[in-house]
Amino acid sequence: MNTNGNFCGSADHDVNRRAFLAAMGLGTAGLVGTSAAPHLLAAEGLTQALKKNSKHVILLWLAGGASQLETWDPKPGRPTGGPFAAIPTDIPGVHISELMPRMAKRMKHSCVIRSLNTRDGGHGSGAQMMMRGRRDEAVLKYPDLGAVLAKELGRADSAVPDYVNFYPSTEGRGQEMLSPGFLGARYGAINLTDKMSPPNIERLAEITEGDHVAREHLREVFSRRFEQGRDLPTVKSHAAAYARVNGLMSSQKLFDVTDEPKPMQELYGPTQFGQQVMMARRMVEAGVPFVRVGRAWWDSHGQNFETHGELVPELDRVLAALIDDLKQRGLLERTLIVTMGEFGRTPSINASLGRDHFASAWSASLHGCGIKGGSVWGKTDANGEKVAEGEVGAGELFATILAAVGINPKKEYHVGSRPIPLVNPGIQPITQVIA
Asked: Cα–Cα distances in Å, from 74 out to 64, 292, 340?
């Protein structure tokens, strides 16, 4: 697999317990509890209420830029088509790559956007724009998609994280510069890179469970005494921070998939990507609003067909498993799945049998919550070189994701006295694909 190309190799911003405490700027003091609280996945009443009332987004981030021609918009028989055939789907007249036979049977739950023209073929700048729906200003940093969804869909009384980002690969790590922007650190991501769970959430081995619970009870007593007569935001924020950290500690098993039944693990497959997507399902089931799972590295400047011959079947298996799993649990109608990267790949095939960066006519997909299943938006020309119908950009896709989960893209935040809409003025969601 080709791994050449410019990418940011900067270290992740690991979240330790102290940083997590510092980030908790909002919440409710009434949540303060102990690590002896029951595991969230076992809290049947809470889980059922979350299934009924909350919405979630899982983003499968195809880092490096997957080829639309080997996934959602094949062009078999054309000079740009490559060696793979197109196969029919369960929607008459809609064909996708033969590398995705499982998804061909599940297009009734899916919408493909085939007409993205995002005009940015840079790994970093393209990724940042796709995650924000627009470019930052010199004096204003916009929140990324996860931060917006954390704020809009998160629960003030929830003990679980609002925004989790899995990115285990080194290639491309940090390019998108995930940031809550002007929303503040409270809505930033917990970044999981080297481990499958946040660092520093385990109880120290030398402290018994009984001592840990007793210490927390004592802290609660002192905190409540201190709070008396001090109805101050900083005091409430401090209490809420402890509550959120205790919730994270008590839900440690949320980050451990070893207790999943063997058939379920086999459904997602043995790869790290499959295991992390299965974990994403566990998280939305427990109430996490937004989970992003990165799969690298799709930057196939050379050996494009070998690279996609390996990565696309894995995506097909994992995405189909996630759809089936969520549907069986009654969560698909409450969970939107998105697949996208920073751009697509060129229709032209270079001398190294690769495809280069291409942002002028590429594809993304939406599945589940809030979208019209079996729909296709937009069209490219016969060779896939330009958009022929329904051109949309990063902003329109961003707005469509928000609208699908019930968020008005025209909603405004305020930075000082300045109103800041969730998307730039004039940007509209693709209403034709929203249920």
From this structure: 19, 26, 16
Expressed as residue numbers, the domain containing 65 is: 17-433
Question: Which long-range contacts does 274-279 make (Cβ < 8 Å, 24+ apart)?
Answer: 274/314, 274/317, 274/318, 274/321, 275/196, 276/166, 276/168, 276/196, 277/58, 277/60, 277/318, 277/321, 277/322, 278/321, 278/322, 278/325, 279/166, 279/196, 279/254, 279/255
Give residue 216's identity as a one-letter amino acid code. Answer: E
Token pair recorded at residue 312 = 């696309």
Q: How many domains, in total, are found in the chain?
A: 1
Pairing mode, strands 56-62 and 412-415: unpaired
* Assigned domain for 5 exists: no
3 belongs to a structural domain:
no
Q: How far is CA 74 from the centre of its chain?
A: 25
Per-residue pLDDT of 19-30, as tens digits, reads 444 443 333 333
pLDDT (tens digit, 9 = 90+) per residue, 105-138? 999 999 999 999 999 999 999 999 999 999 999 9
Angle formed at CA 100 by CA 98 and CA 103, multiple of 5 degrees:
130
What is the total residue count of the chain? Answer: 435
* Structure tokens that stand for 32 in this block: 């303060």
CATH of the domain at 66: 3.40.720.10
Residue type for position 82: G
Report the DSSP pairing between strands 335-340 and 362-368. antiparallel
d(CA 298, CA 308): 8
3-state secondary structure of 13: coil
The answer as to whether 365 is a domain residue is yes
The model's pTM is 0.83
Crossing angle for the helix pair 209-227 and 233-250, nearest 10 degrees?
A: 160
* Cβ neighbour number for residue 432 with a 10 Å cutoff: 11
Beta strand pairing call for 387-389 and 86-88: unpaired
- Partners of residue 335 on adjacent β-strands: 56
CA distance 9 to 401: 29
What is the chain's alpha carbon radius of gyration, rounded to the nearest angstrom? Answer: 22
CA-to-CA distance for 339 and 320, rounded, in angstroms?
Answer: 12
Look-up: residue for tokens 């949309």? 392
- With a pLDDT cut of 70, the percent of the chain lying above it is 81
Nearest alpha-carbon partner for 121 in 301, 390, 351, 339: 301
The position carrying tokens 């197109």 is 86
Query: Rounded distance, CA 64 to CA 298, Å?
Result: 5
Q: Is residue 12 part of a domain?
A: no
CA distance 95 to 71: 10
